[in-house]
Design a protein that fits this description.
This protein is an all-alpha fold and 265 residues long. The protein has 16 helices and no strands. The protein has two domains: 164 residues, Leucine-rich Repeat Variant (Alpha Horseshoe), CATH 1.25.10; 85 residues, Leucine-rich Repeat Variant. This is Cytoskeleton-associated protein 5.
C-alpha cells in the first residue's frame, strides 16, 4: 500500500524540475559525450538518449511513458499534459526553461510522425512556449536553436496550409528570442532543400524578415547574401523564382539600384 501511495506521489508531482542539468547536457554534446542532435530521420539511439536525459532531469515518469509510447494517442496525452502544465506553472517558468532543450527535441521527433493531430497540437504547444519565452525575455541558446530550428524550417515544406502558416508564425516568435542574423543562416540552409515548397516558403520568410528588420539580417554581408538568393531566380520551380524576385524587391526598397552592384548584374 505504501509503495503504491509513493508511486502515486511520484506520478502526480509537477512535470518538470528546476535544475542546472541543461548546462551539463550542453557541455556533453560539445565534448561529444552525447550525440549531437543532427539527423535526416531520427534513429533509435537519438530517441533513447533523449528518454534517458529526461529521466536524469527528473521529468515526470508518467509524462515520459506517454512521450515515448509507440501509440500516437499517448503522444496527444503528453501534449495535453504539457499544455495543462502552463496553468499551474510558477510565474517565472524556471522548471520549463530548465528543460526547454529536451522539450524542443521531443517536439522535433513529432515532426517526423505521420499523424496530423500530433503535429498540429505540437505546433500549437510551441506557440504557447514561445509566448512564454518572449514574456520572460529569454534568449534561446545556440544548442537549443540548432537542435530545433532546422527541423521546424523543414515543416515549411509541409503540404498542409495550416502547418506552414503555424510554422511561419512560430518563426516570427523566435525572432524575439534569437538573433535574426542567426535565423537567416538557418533559412538560407532551408533554401537548399529538394522540396520546392520549402524553398519558396523560405524565400517568402526572408522577404518578411527584410520587411520587418531590413537587410541587416543578411549574413555574412548584404552582397554575399544577395548573390546566394539570386541563384534561386533561376530555379526550375515558378513559385521559387517568384519568391526570390519578391525578396529582391523588398531589398530594392532599401538599397535602390545599388542592389544590382551586389549581385553583379
Amino acid at each position: 500500500m505504501a509503495t503504491g501511495k509513493k508511486r502515486e506521489e511520484i506520478d502526480n508531482k509537477s512535470l518538470f524540475q528546476h535544475n542546472n542539468l541543461k548546462h551539463q547536457r550542453d557541455i556533453d554534446e560539445h565534448k561529444l559525450k552525447a550525440l549531437k542532435w543532427n539527423f535526416v530521420t531520427p534513429r533509435e539511439e537519438f530517441v533513447e538518449q533523449l528518454r534517458e536525459q529526461m529521466l536524469t532531469a527528473g521529468i515526470n515518469k508518467v509524462l515520459i511513458t506517454n512521450m515515448f509510447h509507440s501509440d500516437f494517442r499517448y503522444h496527444l496525452k503528453a501534449i495535453e499534459s504539457l499544455s495543462e502544465d502552463f496553468n499551474t506553472a510558477d510565474d517565472n517558468y524556471l522548471p520549463l526553461i530548465s528543460n526547454l532543450d529536451l522539450i524542443l527535441k521531443w517536439i522535433t521527433l513529432r515532426f517526423f510522425d505521420t499523424n496530423p493531430s500530433v503535429l498540429l497540437k505540437g505546433l500549437e504547444y510551441l506557440q504557447h512556449i514561445f509566448n512564454i519565452l518572449v514574456s520572460q525575455k529569454y534568449i534561446l541558446h545556440d544548442t537549443e536553436a540548432s537542435s530545433f530550428v532546422p527541423y521546424l524550417i523543414k515543416k515549411l515544406g509541409d503540404p498542409k496550409d495550416i502547418v506552414r502558416n503555424t510554422v511561419r508564425a512560430i518563426l516570427k516568435q523566435i525572432a524575439f528570442v534569437f538573433p535574426n542574423s542567426k535565423i537567416f543562416q538557418y533559412i538560407m540552409e532551408g533554401i537548399k532543400s529538394k522540396n520546392s515548397r520549402q524553398r519558396s516558403e523560405c524565400l517568402e520568410h526572408l522577404t518578411s524578415m527584410v520587411e520587418d528588420y531590413g537587410t541587416s539580417v543578411f549574413q555574412p554581408s548584404v552582397a554575399v547574401a544577395c548573390k546566394e538568393i539570386a541563384k534561386s531566380i533561376g530555379d526550375r520551380d515558378n513559385s521559387v523564382r517568384t519568391a526570390a524576385l519578391n525578396c529582391f524587391v523588398a531589398a530594392f526598397f532599401i538599397h535602390g539600384e545599388a542592389l544590382f552592384n551586389f549581385v553583379g548584374h
